Amino acid sequence: SSCIALIVAAGSGQRFGAEQPKQYLDLAGQPVLRRTVEAFRRHPKVSAVRVVINPAFRDLYDAAVAGLDLPEPVAGGASRQDSVRNGLEALADSAPGLVLIHDAARPLIDSDTINAVIAALDTHPAALAAVPVADTLKRGDDGLVAGTVDRSGLWRAQTPQGFRFPAILAAHRDAAGLELTDDAAVAERAGLPVALVPAREENFKVTTPDDLTRATRALDSALS
Ligand code: C5P
């Protein structure tokens, strides 16, 4: 069945502190969003890519994906959850079998991880890329350690998060208005089993200027 990549790029990037949202900044010669889109476009199991944007940044979007011949972008919403739901609604008519939801701000996504998430959907209605927690976790209180949190069994959720399309569309409609920070949480709430797919540290989310430097280094070392 067909698999569509839905890339959410409608954030304002306020934490980043740049004039432009981070997904439109240059990363080693290409906009972050263009790299993200290309990672899915060149994947043989992904049939199409759809991007969710803030229409206020339409010019930046057009410049970032110039020449890629993408379908019309979808208008996002106030929260990430709203942006995803708008994207899913826009796909409803074409009724894909699978959807991979991915943050535009994760440009270093690799093809093996995309493959593994798609493969997990053979046996599960939902699956997400994630990394096991390696550091010891502390709860902080006013600059002091208030306790140590058991890290066993804890994972850091990334994207892509993949779903059987009808199940995640229904779950998102039902969760509208809640403040859930990822789509797996929407699926969990609907009672869907979500498979954990071990992914790479390199697929981190570009959130701060330091992250852009880190991503540039990762690309440089991949080339040399
Ligand atoms: O803000 P955060 O880093 O969690 O955003 C993750 C992804 O969700 C980013 O790619 C961002 O552009 C997107 N997003 C969105 N609509 C929003 C907020 C975030 O598409 N309202």
Structure, explained:
- Helices cover 32% and strands 26% of the residues.
- The protein has seven helices and eleven strands.
- It has helices at residues 32-41, 58-64, 80-91, 111-120, 165-175, 183-189, 209-223, and strands at residues 3-9, 26-27, 30-31, 48-53, 74-75, 98-103, 126-132, 137-141, 144-149, 155-164, 194-198.
- The protein has one domain: Alpha-Beta Complex (Spore Coat Polysaccharide Biosynthesis Protein SpsA, Chain A), CATH 3.90.550.
- It is α/β, with parallel strands linked by helices.
- It is globular, with a radius of gyration of 17 Å.
- Helix 5 (165-175) packs across helix 6 (183-189).
- Strands 5-4-1-6-10-7-11 form a seven-stranded mixed sheet, with helices on both faces. A two-stranded antiparallel sheet has the order 2-3.
- 40% of the residues are buried.
- The N and C termini lie far apart (38 Å).
- The longest helix has 15 residues, at 209-223.
- Residues 8-11, 23, 52, 76-80, 83, 103-105, 205, 207 line the site of cytidine-5'-monophosphate.
Spell out the CATH superfamily.
Answer: Spore Coat Polysaccharide Biosynthesis Protein SpsA, Chain A
Distance between the termini: 38 Å
Low-confidence stretches: none
Q: Write the CATH fold name.
A: Spore Coat Polysaccharide Biosynthesis Protein SpsA, Chain A
**Beta strand count:** 11
Helical percentage: 25-40%
Give me the CATH architecture, please: Alpha-Beta Complex
As for the number of domains, it is 1
- The Rg value, from CA coordinates, equals 17 Å
Cofactor: a divalent metal cation
Protein name: Bifunctional enzyme IspD/IspF
EC number: 2.7.7.60, 4.6.1.12
Catalytic activity: 2-C-methyl-D-erythritol 4-phosphate + CTP + H(+) = 4-CDP-2-C-methyl-D-erythritol + diphosphate; 4-CDP-2-C-methyl-D-erythritol 2-phosphate = 2-C-methyl-D-erythritol 2,4-cyclic diphosphate + CMP
